[in-house]
Design goal:
alpha/beta, Rossmann fold, 4 domains, eight-stranded mixed beta sheet, 24 helices, 16% strand, disordered C terminus
Length: 920
């Protein structure tokens, strides 16, 4: 039987399986039982399928059948998490009397064209219901401007999700739909074709019904864009069509690039045809969906300048309508949630920050994402192939190649990847997936001329593979493997697939030429006329090698992507993640996916995967605490020395924090080396010092400075939590330190020592004397200071520390001699940490800081004058010192957090118990 016949046979067997399963389900419902779709049940039904079929079912066909069934029925998907501005949100969708024309036909289309959605359609329906429900109610009498964000994984089904919400929103009464894609036409065209298939039902370029439109009543939205053209505004009919008539229920839809010229034409057309008075707004509900919302839509200018043009145009478009919902969709939401949400009085006060809702989609279990690929324990970790031969071949090609690169040869691994793609095509054909699309990605350069050179090298080598497969594919191994190219193909086969798939070399050899002869090679960039046109090949399946750079790095879907060759370096999480076109769904061929990538790049993806996992866990926790989007304390892991999170101009409202696991406090000294200019902060710090003094016992008379022992840890925890430090004090996190002090069970840390630093000055200095309760009196410590770019006062002496070996206070002379003896033997200079030896009680140090101007800064002189005239006359500063503990090993991680919703500093966010819900 040929491959097409084999594929038809598998479909017949699957149909029998569905019938038997449905019969079992009906019987189970009658008997009030539950069917568990485990492997035991699937195997038992397959045996019944073979009997019902009546004909021969080969071993390979049975394996294919089992693989298809397992990937369909063992898939599940959880509902997403929603952060809301109002957790008493009044549900308005769905309405019982809702017209569901657009949704019903889209649901039927998805189930008919994607059988793998059978297992997840219930969750997909619930997710799109919930997201639509968070939109403004289009039938409301009140005006609204809703802002939301939907987060999903790269290539996990976000497009299907927003088409689903479009269908439901239009059924509910939305009249104008504007879908903004990326910034390149190829992506806009691909998105338009998806919208034609899933919502419009008609291809206006070919004048044929497509997708949901086939076999349904002729009821189409008015589409002002097509797969051939973005909105131009130059066509008279299109301008006329933009008119929105009150009694007309036909929805209007535009699928547009994020381009200022396009957006301004839409704004102009909407204004001219739908508003009469100068400030009158359009009385028709608008749904504006911003795909890849972190790209180009973010206001990247500083606060006192105009927002960037695209950001401005999107907001102006939204403001044209009395009722408008804006929803951003992205897999890399870092820039969106770092938007400044609180500048209401400024122009950016009406920015695109998702103030009303943030919805985090959860991918189905059959999704191949960063964690399953790049975690060493991931199911598809074996798909990674170490691209390690570039280090020995830098003369051939390098990360830093120039746009005039004119080489004729690439790394050996590059040619192995081409052979692997050829082998994968043969495997898919043998498995019966004859008409399935399959693609290879080559992403090595952002330069168009270099991409053309790579295409030439690829064409030459692929031609050799095809020629060899044609001449030797049907010969015996003795003659076949005597050919160097065929021997190479066999070697790659054994290395990549020979021991992992239930297919023989003989089958591969005989199938190879027919499988690879149709392979095309295309370049995808703004200068190329070649396109990723899977639609033209939908009846036969397209076999294509796509070569590109930026155009392949965001949004574009490579159907049936099996092999990727990725040799790029980049600087940010979001760009790198978007380059991962290999994420997605690989039904029936996930085991043969291969990704050539360097260990360095793979480690970057691992870091990003860990960061995203933490972000999703935080969202789940914030939902439980009923945190609003404005208060959402996003934190993003930022440990990498090589990668940033996103572009610097999108991170203006992000600040640094360090998250310390409990063990990482041991042996650590945290100081308040940044002081606030706010005199009230300083006054509050002295106030808590006064309160602490009242709680202290008698000082240790053997120490020549005020030194107290045996203070309970809870007293210290309460004190540290109240200390006021500038936001930029990354190393002194009051909340984390206080939590560790209060919650630890180490007996050594159960009681604390407290030191008030007071050192003698030279006779000509006359220090400021500070008198405190409980008979405590100390000399202020002079420290050189400067004003930072952030407006804080920084200790700026040679060491930039508050103290200098103050931790040796309270120790016996013998202990000090023991510690300092190491220095006399040639050890490195004694530091404060060396005195915090294992077994010593922790130490709180309190300083009175008399600031000195280091560089004649007039502003600092004024601050010093103010502090000197205050009640205390000096700054309060603090140091928290923990003893070493060599038996404890723990990590700390660097994070970026939203300045206005600081995960680590906002009340309750980082406590183990969580923030208590507000009283109703």
């Amino acid at each position: 039987m040929n491959n097409v016949g084999a594929n038809e046979k598998i479909e017949r067997l699957l149909g029998i399986f569905d019938s038997l399963k449905n019969s079992d389900q009906m019987m189970a419902n009658v008997q009030k039982k539950t069917i568990i779709f485990d492997q035991k049940y699937i195997d038992s039904v397959i045996e019944r399928v073979k009997v019902a079929f009546g004909g021969e079912v080969t071993q390979e066909e049975e394996k294919t059948l089992k693989r298809r069934i397992t990937s369909t029925y063992e898939v599940y998907q959880e509902e997403g998490d929603a952060l809301l501005s109002n957790y008493a949100h009044v549900d308005w969708y769905p309405r019982s009397e809702e017209n569901r024309f657009y949704w019903d036909r889209y649901e039927s289309f998805l189930l008919a064209t994607n059988p793998y959605m059978k297992a997840t359609m219930g969750t997909f329906n619930k997710n799109t219901d919930r997201i639509t429900n968070y939109f403004g109610d289009p039938q409301s009498d009140q005006q609204f401007q809703v802002r939301g964000l939907v987060m999903g994984d790269v290539q996990s089904g976000k497009t299907a999700t927003y088409i689903g919400t479009i269908c439901k929103a239009v059924d509910a009464g939305y009249k104008v739909i504007i879908l903004l894609t990326g910034m390149v036409e190829s992506l806009r065209k691909q998105t338009q074709m998806r919208v034609d298939q899933g919502f419009i039902g008609y291809d206006s370029v070919k004048n044929v019904q497509v997708g949901v439109g086939i076999g349904t009543q002729r009821k189409y939205p008015r589409a002002l864009t097509s797969s051939a053209s973005d909105y131009t505004g130059s066509n008279v009919d299109k301008n006329t069509n933009m008119s929105i008539q009150p009694g007309d229920t036909t929805p209007l839809i535009l699928v547009c690039k994020k381009n200022t010229k396009v957006l301004e034409k839409i704004i102009k057309g909407m204004k001219n045809l739908n508003t009469s008075a100068l400030h009158k707004k359009i009385d028709a509900p608008l749904l504006l969906i911003d795909d890849e919302a972190d790209n180009a839509s973010i206001n990247t200018n500083v606060a006192d300048l105009d927002p960037t043009a695209i950001n401005r145009d999107i907001r102006n478009l939204l403001q044209l309508f009395k009722k408008a919902t804006y929803v951003g969709f992205t897999a890399t939401p870092f820039a969106n949630v770092f938007i400044q949400p609180n500048s209401i009085k400024e122009m950016i006060g009406d920015d695109l920050f998702p103030k009303d809702f943030i919805y985090s989609l959860k991918a189905p279990t059959d999704y191949i994402g960063p964690s399953s690929l790049f975690f060493p324990t991931g199911k598809y970790y074996h798909c990674l192939v170490d691209l390690n031969d570039y280090l020995q071949n830098l003369s051939l090609f390098s990360y830093s190649h120039k746009k005039d690169w004119d080489g004729t040869q690439l790394f050996p691994s590059f040619y192995d990847s081409l052979i692997t793609f050829c082998l994968a095509n043969a495997i898919r054909d043998i498995r019966g997936d004859k008409i399935a699309h399959r693609s290879m990605l080559i992403n090595m350069s952002r330069f168009k001329d270099v991409q053309s050179k790579i295409k030439g090298i690829t064409e030459d080598y692929l031609g050799e593979i095809k020629k060899t497969a044609r001449l030797f594919g049907h010969q015996s191994d003795d003659r076949c493997l005597a050919n160097p190219m065929m021997k190479k193909i066999h070697d790659v086969w054994m290395e990549q697939y020979g021991n992992s798939v239930s297919i023989t070399w003989a089958q591969i050899k005989e199938t190879l030429y027919d499988s690879i002869s149709p392979i095309d090679i295309v370049i995808i960039n703004s200068a190329s006329k070649e396109k990723l046109d899977y639609e033209t090949h939908k009846t036969t399946g397209w076999r294509v090698i796509a070569i590109g750079g930026l155009a392949l790095s965001r949004g574009l879907t490579l159907e049936g992507l099996i092999v990727s060759y990725f040799f790029r370096n980049t600087s940010t999480y979001d760009v790198l993640m978007q380059m991962g076109r290999w994420f997605g769904y690989r039904p029936n061929y996930g085991d043969i996916v291969r990704i050539w990538i360097s260990k360095t790049s793979a480690s970057w993806y691992l870091e990003i995967a860990e960061s995203i996992e933490t972000l999703r866990q935080d969202i789940t926790r914030m939902v439980e605490l009923k945190i609003t989007p404005v208060d959402f304390g996003i934190r993003v892991r930022d440990d990498s020395e090589d990668l940033g999170i996103t572009a610097a101009n999108k991170m203006r409202n992000a600040i640094e924090r360090v998250d310390r696991q409990s063990g990482s406090f041991y042996g650590r000294i945290s100081e308040t080396t940044l002081l606030s200019q706010d005199m009230l902060d300083n006054q509050e710090n002295w106030s808590i010092v006064y309160d602490l003094c009242e709680k202290l016992p008698k000082p240790d008379p053997s120490v020549n400075q005020p030194y107290f022992r045996g203070i309970p840890k809870q007293v210290i925890a309460d004190f540290v939590k109240l200390i006021r430090v500038p936001d930029a004090s990354v190393q002194f996190d009051c909340e984390q330190i206080a939590r560790f002090v209060a919650s630890n069970t180490d007996p050594v840390l159960s009681t604390w020592d407290v030191l008030f630093v007071s050192k003698e000055h030279s006779l000509d200095e006359s220090p400021i004397r500070v008198t405190l309760p409980n008979g405590i009196s100390i000399n202020a410590v002079r420290r050189t200071c400067a004003i930072t770019n952030g407006g804080y006062i920084s200790i700026s002496g040679d060491s930039s520390h508050i103290g200098s070996r103050d931790t040796k206070a309270g120790l016996t002379p013998e202990k000090i001699e023991e510690i300092e003896g190491d220095r006399k033997k040639g050890a490195k200079k004694t530091s404060q940490k060396m005195y915090m030896y294992e077994g010593r009680h922790p130490l709180l140090i309190i300083y009175a800081i008399d600031p000195r101007n280091s560089n004649g800064d007039n502003k600092l002189d004024e601050i010093i004058r103010l502090i000197n005239s205050s009640a205390q006359g000096v700054f309060a500063a603090f140091s928290v010192c923990f003893p070493q503990n060599n038996s404890v090993i723990a990590e700390s991680h660097q994070y970026k957090v939203n300045r206005n919703a600081d995960y680590f500093r906002k009340a309750g966010f980082s406590s183990e118990q969580g923030k208590e819900p507000e009283e109703p």
